[in-house]
Design goal:
Layout: E1 5-7, E2 27-33, E3 36-42, E4 49-51
Parallel strand pairs: 1-4
Antiparallel strand pairs: 2-3, 3-4
Length: about 55
């Protein structure tokens, strides 16, 4: 699957899609990179994928 991952820095919460404005939260996905698992968020409306850089 080919998709761009958008990096997002959150201030208080991450509920609204910064690309399409969808306001009801996100789906999640897990991807393995360099032996570690990374949690990514997918907008249900526009399918954009976001990395919040959580540790």
């Amino acid at each position: 699957m080919d998709y761009e991952v958008h990096e997002v820095e959150i201030s208080k919460e991450f509920k609204i899609c910064p690309l399409c404005g969808y306001q009801d939260g996100f789906h999640t996905m897990i991807r393995k990179e360099a032996g570690k698992f990374k949690k990514l968020y997918i907008c249900p409306r526009c399918s954009a994928v976001f990395d919040l850089k959580l540790k």
